[in-house]
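Writing this down once: the sequence line spells out the residues, with the fold written below as integer tokens. I am pasting one below:
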Amino acid sequence: SGKGRIIIERTGQYQTELTKRGFVYTLYPNEYTVDPFYLYIYFPYEIRYLLKQMASIIFISLILIVIILMLFIYVIKVIVWQKRLSEMKNDFINNMTHEIKTPISTISLACEALSDEAVSKNEVLAPSYLRVIRDENDRLGGIAEKILQAATIEKEDFKLKFEKVNIHKVI
């Protein structure tokens, strides 16, 4: 179709596309001649062909991307849940420490007061300080029992005790 050109084409429909949009390769690039030979290649449905060849790879890649995104979201949710759980645990420890320190301080003050001879010989103050020590000791025992109950409930190793209760008395 041109001087010094030989165009071999299977259908004869794409001569202009071959020269304008085709891929050009030099044949024998290491040989230096005056008129080098070129190879023109044109794919009329190049993108469709490539997509058809890569369809399975693209599909698998999309599935893997979706799975990775789902796992990422799950990991973020677990991290947030763990953080919330850690904050709850720290709040519980702080509250329990405060609840336990109060009776201990009260018992300590009452014991110091009883160690004073004037208070220990006083028939009114000594029994009241002993009553404070007993009450605070009972309070500590109740706190310890609540902690044990919470640990038992957390392990899910507990049994319910059913008993009849008069609801009118409770109300």
Remarks:
- The chain has five helices and two strands.
- The longest strand covers residues 23-27.
- Strands lie at 23-27, 37-41.
- The radius of gyration is 44 Å.
